Amino acid sequence: MAKIKSIKENSISSRIGLEAGDEILSINEKKINDYIDYQFETSEPFFTLKIKKNSGEIKEYEVEREYNEILGITLDGIIFDGLKKCNNDCIFCFVKQQPSNLRNSLLLKDDDYRFSFLKGSFITLTNLNEKDWQKIINKRLSPLYISVHTTNSHLRKKMMKNPEAANILENLQRLKNNNINFHAQLVLCPDLNDGDELKNTLNDLEKFFPNLLSLGVVPVGLTKYRENLEDLNSYNQKKALNVIKIINNYQKKFNNKYNENFLYASDEFYLLAGEKIPEYDKYNGFPQIENGIGLTRLLLNELKNIDDELPDELQENKKFTIITAELSKKIMKKVINRFNKIKGLNIDLLVIENKFFGKNVTVTGLLTGQDIYNSIIKNDTSKNIIIPGITLNDENLFLDNMSFIKLKDKLKDKKLYVCNNLKEIMEVL
Predict the structure, then answer these.
(1) What band does 75 get if pLDDT is binned at 50, 70 and 90?
(2) What is the pTM of this model?
(3) CB contact at 8 A, 36 and 75
(4) Which domains does the chain have, with CATH numbers?
């Protein structure tokens, strides 16, 4: 059941007597399985709510609302009939490569098409029944976010260890036939689905444009927790460069053919290969920024845009330390070199090795509270330390469940700041 989290004051819901903790049993005599159902059924000017009150009493309400009048209900969650979980056993699954003491949400193998539509999470399409397909089609759940990895049916079945994985081209064609748009991603594993396999996949996926809105190519992430798992390798500079060459060739092809590019490599590939990050206009609105595609370009552009706002000198001398991970070291050095041109300002960079997940994990977003803490106490850092906001979730928890407050308590002699972008860093400085 859909539980009401809060009620907006002076809204329709408050006027008819709904309260936090009440549960919606049905709307227009239809069970509400998710936020999509809720939005769909409450979009009309007249509807009937069946509510289970906090007291246990069952009541019905006839609701009439004006156009654009707010109902005023905030629901507790967006899925009310249970999350559709992943039924694959992917050889590169990051969830299987984590210790058990992480946040519960990080250990959950989500493969729910409703989360994909509402929140932009990637799904595989392997666990959909006909009822799910009809809901996607009838309610126009577009765009979706699809993990493709490869269009080779035998290879996809092998990589995901699921016979249903072989049907990817048929499933994507069904989306296209019903004009459902989608973003796609390929998680590449060296010598498995890159090289010629990558070229074949790109050739296959091109046929789905323009319903294919964007295609992101990202490298496999491997932690130290791979006991009894398949033997996979991480990307090195040479192999990353080979991927970039393929991506560049296909980007030129798509631009020449469609006057538009929809193919993007993750920042990690460019940084590993030592290649220049593409210019801002090459990202076409950054459709896969949450997938680590384009973050570095945004950072570099932000540095350029705030250049005129930076002072020539400070009124008093200040020292800061900025936290980063190995992969971002080169880029962040450009940032601090520019800031250090300000007279009276001295910033150093603390590059942290990811001991929690293993040295092969080099992205800043996967740094943990304990690794940050251990690095700070072992190194001669300044009193003022800037933590990248990307390391924390909305509840200010690191991946290892350490809270930012706890980290501050453990480092009482330091001043910690969380910054999400250069503008915030500049304000702190």
Answers:
(1) very high
(2) 0.91
(3) no
(4) 2-75 (2.30.42.10), 95-300 (3.80.30.10), 306-428 (3.40.50)
